[in-house]
Amino acid sequence: MTAEKQTFIQDADAAQNSLVSMAAQSRAMNDKLTSIVSRIKSLEAGKPWGDTEEYGKPFEQQYQNDGQGSDFIRDQVGIIAEQTEHGTRLAYQAIRDTVQLDEDGAALFKVAGSENVGSTVKDTLDDQQKRAEEQQKQSGK
Asked: What segments bear the compositional bias annotation Basic and acidic residues (predicted)?
């Protein structure tokens, strides 16, 4: 981006850098959660709770809870990790595209020699204000 940014995003570079960092962290979280879920599945395969009528089967029934137990939780954890990573990519693209759109729009409406119009108008208004204040002081008002 240029030194004079033509965007309403105050610090697009900092926002993009933060989102790159967030995306890296979300990928790491996704990888870690995938590893944890895999480990849990391998432990569950051995049914460490047992197979007895008194304890094992009631525990397994509660643990599985007709698809709303452990499987549901594992699926939701995966969705959270994936959506976090996806969300940071979308936000990064949104900032990048907004800055580009703002810069393109500014270039479309730029007139040769108009680079300093805003500061020139402000200087003119400031000068007029000073003159008015001086005139008031001189007239004793």
From this structure: 123-141
